[in-house]
Design goal:
The chain is of the alpha/beta class and about 300 residues long. It has a domain of about 200 residues: NADP-dependent oxidoreductase domain (TIM Barrel, Alpha-Beta Barrel), CATH 3.20.20.100. About 40% of the residues lie in helices and about 15% in strands. The strands form two sheets. An eight-stranded parallel β-sheet has the order 3-4-5-6-7-8-9-10. Strands 1-2 form a two-stranded antiparallel ribbon. Helix 5 links the parallel strand 6 and strand 7. Helix 6 runs parallel beside helix 7. The longest helix is centred in the first third of the chain and has 18 residues. This is Diketogulonate reductase-like aldo/keto reductase. InterPro entries: AKR2_Oxidoreductase, NAD(P)_OxRdtase_dom_sf, NADP_OxRdtase_dom. Keywords: Signal.
């Protein structure tokens, strides 16, 4: 698997597209037609009861590209997400060109209005925040942003006042806060227990389960939707299982790849609303989406899955 920092050559890109097309057309997503469950699992956003598919896509580093050759596999990845029932695309002004690439690709896709768009404000000061968020909406070509999040809680009190006003005016639909470290989980809980927050985004994986102690239960109790970043522990999970076969009991539970194994572990937690694995590879995107289909693990199976990973 390519790391987030690697880019594809033109030859590799064309190879990926050909392989992705074959996968999606024959042995990939169309395989759902013979399955008992042909739609992705959806969970409600507690503040509105709107249903959101449990797997989306993140854009950190993977969508920060310039040329059309590099953008083409990203378009195919977005189409794979859509075809499998995914909706949420998460971005940020911190992610270089990612917002603009998302806007450009979705605008020409024919399915522009079928995604749930999420981005962030990542600056200090009221006016700077307003300008940055306006720029984000222009880049992503959205008259209304589905979800605007305060990135890593930077100047969150200032931006929260703006977001409340924008939500009341209909400029955004939902308000969120984010972070990516265990050490900030208590701060996230403290904020959404005191203020009107719709979404909280944070790190969580089968290797990093700190969120289970307080953050996930509190979000469930307070009615806050959750978005999971770093679901693959920044790629460390794939290093752990390199060369290892999936156990038979995993396949018996609709888990057919290690990516699905790691994502289904997260989706199996009832307080998880959506996971956002990032990728620029259409085949990986299609495989990630499969985690939202079929049976999801109960608590006993989740512990069995975690024990397996700890044994490696």
């Amino acid at each position: 698997m390519k790391t987030l920092h690697q880019r594809y050559s033109r030859r590799e890109t064309l190879g990926l597209l050909a392989a992705s097309t074959a996968t999606l057309a024959s042995g990939g997503l169309t395989a759902f037609s013979s399955s008992n469950q042909t739609t992705m699992l959806n969970r409600p956003i507690p503040s509105s009861k709107e249903k959101l598919p449990v797997v989306g896509i993140g854009t950190w580093q993977t969508f920060d590209v310039a040329g059309k050759t590099e953008q083409e596999p990203l378009l195919q990845a977005l189409k794979a997400v859509h075809q499998a029932g995914g909706r949420l695309i998460d971005s940020s002004p911190m992610y270089g060109r990612s917002e603009e690439v998302v806007g450009t690709l979705t605008a020409g896709s024919g399915i522009q209005n079928e995604f749930f768009y999420a981005t962030k404000v990542w600056t200090r000061g009221r006016e700077a925040g307003i300008q940055q968020m306006d720029d984000s909406m222009r880049k992503m070509k959205r008259p209304t942003m589905d979800l605007m999040q305060i990135h890593n809680l930077l100047d969150w009190k200032t931006h929260l006042e703006t977001l409340k006003a924008w939500k009341a005016a209909g400029k955004i639909r939902y308000i969120g806060i984010t972070h990516y470290t265990d050490s900030m989980h208590d701060d996230l809980v403290d904020i959404f227990t005191k203020y009107p927050i719709d979404f909280v985004q944070f790190n969580y994986s089968i290797l990093s389960r700190n969120a289970e102690k307080k953050l996930l239960p509190a979000a469930q109790d307070k009615g806050v939707a959750t978005i999971i970043n770093q679901p693959f522990a920044e790629g460390r999970l794939f290093s752990l299982v390199k060369g290892k076969e999936l156990p038979a009991w995993a396949k018996e539970n609709d888990i057919n790849s290690w990516a699905q194994f790691f994502l289904k572990f997260l989706i199996g937690h009832p307080a998880v609303t959506c996971v956002i694995p990032g990728t620029s590879n259409p085949r990986h995107a299609a495989d990630n989406m499969l985690a939202g289909h079929g049976r999801q693990p109960d608590s006993a199976l989740r512990e069995k899955m975690a024990a397996l990973i700890r044994s490696f």
